[in-house]
């Protein structure tokens, strides 16, 4: 009973922090709490801690030079419900499946992609030299599908932070940790490729008539692909 009360208190604190520091809007906070609760109640504090690390580091890089990014990308609101679902749905599903099976590697891989993409997009936009991933032509920083040296380095750090957290918190092997880092970076590039191909040449969350996939759609697909690859590799090798 005490453990349940503690878990509920953690979820409440999680929601209060997200709202107080404007990390998420109200809708995003609700879904983040649902996803966090699923992970916390099914797999415990160590798995939830990985999600918390993603939230904290994601908030830090999002707020870093926020005013500059607002001018470059126009106004960026706190992360909304669809963004939270796109990045958190697959990790939550992996946690639930892990009640009976060991899905710790796909779980870490899924969050590794989300973290790599967050770092790449939030820090990469600060670079003045950006290139479209499909043809490497110069393009405005922050445009869908844009990549930069700063963004590439940031994606490695993002994937590394989550994967190394998995090594210590979920007891991944060194091989599994490296795999999650690679898949995090790979998923981030899938995100950029989909963005360049299906989102149109817009900035931030702006969509147009030629937009086939939204930013959240692209996030969900890239996370799903990397997670599936993680599952296949772990099962086959």
Quick recap of the structure?
With 237 residues, the protein is an all-alpha fold. The protein is built from nine helices and three strands, in the order ααααααβββααα. A three-stranded antiparallel beta sheet has the order 2-1-3.
What does this structure look like?
The protein has helices at 2-20, 26-43, 45-63, 66-73, 81-97, 104-124, 149-169, 174-199, 215-236; strands at 130-132, 138-139, 146-147. It is an all-alpha fold and 237 residues long. It has one domain. It has a three-stranded antiparallel β-sheet. Helix 7 runs antiparallel to helix 8 (174-199). The chain is globular. It starts with a helix and ends with a helix. The mean pLDDT is 87.
Count up the helices. 9
What class, by secondary structure content? Answer: mainly alpha
User: H/E series, N to C?
Assistant: HHHHHHEEEHHH
Overall domain count? 1
């Amino acid at each position: 009973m005490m453990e349940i009360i503690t878990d509920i208190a953690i979820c409440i604190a999680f929601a209060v922090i997200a709202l107080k520091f404007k990390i998420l809007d109200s809708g995003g906070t609700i879904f983040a709490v649902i996803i966090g609760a699923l992970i916390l109640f099914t797999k415990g504090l160590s798995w939830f801690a990985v999600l918390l690390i993603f939230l904290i580091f994601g908030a830090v890089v999002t707020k870093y030079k926020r005013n500059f990014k607002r001018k470059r990308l126009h106004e960026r609101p706190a992360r909304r419900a669809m963004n939270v679902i796109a990045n958190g749905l697959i990790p939550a599903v992996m946690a639930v499946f892990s009640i009976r099976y060991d899905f710790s590697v796909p779980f870490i891989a899924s969050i590794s992609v989300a973290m790599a993409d967050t770092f790449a997009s939030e820090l990469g936009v600060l670079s003045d030299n950006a290139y479209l991933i499909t043809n490497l032509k110069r393009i405005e920083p922050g445009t869908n599908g844009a990549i930069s040296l700063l963004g590439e380095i940031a994606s490695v750090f993002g994937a590394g932070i989550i994967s190394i957290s998995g090594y210590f918190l979920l007891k991944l092997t060194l091989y599994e940790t490296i795999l999650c880092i690679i898949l995090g970076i790979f998923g981030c590039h899938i995100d950029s490729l989909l963005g360049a191909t299906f989102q149109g040449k817009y900035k931030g969350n702006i969509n147009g008539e030629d937009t086939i996939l939204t930013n959240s759609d692209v996030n969900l697909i890239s996370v799903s692909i990397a997670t599936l690859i993680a599952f296949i590799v772990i099962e086959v090798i």
